[in-house]
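Please review this one:
***
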Amino acid sequence: MVSFWHIIDAIHKSPQLDIQFPTSHEEQEKVAKEFQSKSSIDISCCVGAIDGILIWIHKPSDSDCDMLGFGQTKFFCGRKKKFGLNMQAVCDAKRRFLWVDIRYPGTKSDFFAFDQSSLKEKLEQPGFLHSGLCLFGDAAYANSPYMCSPFRSATGTQDDFNFFQSQLRITIECAFGMLVHRFGILRKAFQVNVTVSKTNTAVLALCKLHNFCIQSSNCGDDIVASDVRDTSNIMMEGGLVLPRIDRDDGSENRWRYEVEDRLDTLLDGGQHMDDHLDADRRRYRYRNELPRQSIHDYIASNEFRRPYRRATR
C-alpha cells in the first residue's frame, strides 16, 4: 500500500487535477449549455447535478471517532447495512466532478451534509451563481433558488416535470457509477487500518483521476473491464458484485456505464429526515419564482409529456 499512497500524494500535488466548482458566470453558463444539449426539451438552467453516495469503510477506530467528533454508530448506515461516509458531489453533463465533499458519517442525510457545506454557503451569496441557474438534485434536497428538486407524490404535469428533471439529475448517479466501476477499491470497505482522514484523501484523488480519464479520452464513458484476479479479490473480501463488468467471457474488452448499472447498494442512504426538521426544508416554500416552478410552467405551457409508462405485472 506504500506505493498507493505515494500516487495519492502525487495526484494532490498536481494543481491541474484540482476539482473546483465554476466561479465565473461564463463558466457556469458553459456547464448549463452542456446540460441543455442532454435535455430532450432544452432545459437550460442546470449548472450541475448533485447527489450523495456512501463510501464504504470498516468500523472506525476510537481515535478516529474522537478526532471527528462522532461515535462509531454514526458511521453505520442502517439503510445500507454498512459503515461509511456520506460523500456529496456535483458533476457536469460529461460526468466530471465539479465539487466533492466528504465531511460527515454515513448516517447523515444528504440534506444535512449539503446544508452544512461550503458550496451551499457560496450559492447563497448574491451574485455568485448566474441568474436563473441552479443545481438539480433528488428529493433528498430542498427546493430553493439554487436547487431544483422533484415534486413528491407527483401526478399530471408535476409528474412530467419529474421525468424531464431526472434526465439531467441522473447524470450524477452515472458519474458515481463510473467512479465505482472504474476503481474497484470503492466496491469494498477500505482496509481496516486506513484512517477516515486517509480514506477521504484517497477517494478525492480517485475523483480527480475520474475527471482526468474523461477529459483525456474521446471515449471517456468507456471503462476497461475488470481483471479476473481483481474481481476475485473483491468478491473474497465481500465486495459488490457488478455482473456486467465482472463477466470474464471476453465479449467486451471495454464496457460503458448504463443507467441499469445503478449502484443501489451505495445510493439513497441519505434520503431521510432523521437529522433535521421539515421546517428546515421549507425556507423557500412561499417563494413563487423558484427554478422548479418556472421549469414546470414551461413544461405545462408547451404540453411536454413524459413517455408512456407500461403497466407492470
Q: What stands out?
A: Residues 44 and 113 are 27 Å apart (CA to CA).
